[in-house]
């Protein structure tokens, strides 16, 4: 992915603004969320799905591996691979059935644990903790220049 953008988030409200802005330009494909425990991957996902139109709770699928959603006629699958011991476990749980869903959005937390069992990302967010407990630095990598341009305009950042 050749297009990269860095955004600084200083509050949970900024996270919500960022998630809403991203939802406007990225509604299907594969999204990787990379970051340490407590970096805010699930918090971002909650705001992202709320912006999409989801009503209700968004819980981390740490134990179930996947939480499926139907939001305004769109299939969204939120995977958390943190507890995965072997990527082959994804085959055993039927990941191919999920991945065959047309026009769906796939969100993967801890994608490195999925190795070759999951598709490559269309968009990757690296969420990095900072010295300020509430602030985050987000590195956005996308093969789609339009996503980067949209975020630059709506988040008021320069490359």
Automatic annotation (TrEMBL):
TM regions (residue ranges): none
Keywords on record: ATP-binding, Cytoplasm, Magnesium, Metal-binding, Nucleotide-binding, tRNA processing
Pfam families: TsaE
Keyword Transmembrane helix set for record: no
InterPro entries (UniProt xref): P-loop_NTPase, T6A_TsaE
Keyword Plastid: no
Subcellular localization: Cytoplasm
NCBIfam families in alphabetical order: T6A_YjeE (TIGR00150)
Family the entry assigns: Belongs to the TsaE family.
Official protein name in the record: tRNA threonylcarbamoyladenosine biosynthesis protein TsaE
Provenance organism: Acinetobacter pollinis
């Amino acid at each position: 992915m050749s297009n990269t953008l860095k955004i600084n988030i200083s509050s949970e409200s900024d996270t919500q603004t960022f998630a809403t802005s991203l939802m406007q330009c990225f509604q299907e494909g594969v999204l990787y969320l990379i970051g340490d425990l407590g970096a805010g991957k699930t918090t971002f996902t909650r705001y992202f799905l709320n912006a999409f139109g989801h009503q209700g709770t968004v819980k981390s699928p740490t134990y179930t591996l996947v939480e499926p959603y139907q939001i305004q006629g769109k299939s969204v699958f939120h995977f958390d691979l943190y507890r995965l011991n072997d990527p082959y476990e994804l085959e055993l749980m039927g990941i191919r059935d999920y991945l065959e869903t047309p026009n769906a959005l796939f969100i993967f937390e801890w994608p490195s644990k999925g190795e070759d069992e999951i598709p490559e990302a269309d968009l990757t967010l690296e969420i990095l903790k900072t010295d300020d407990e509430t602030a985050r630095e987000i590195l956005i990598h996308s093969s789609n220049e339009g996503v980067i341009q949209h975020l630059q305009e709506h988040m008021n950042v320069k490359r």
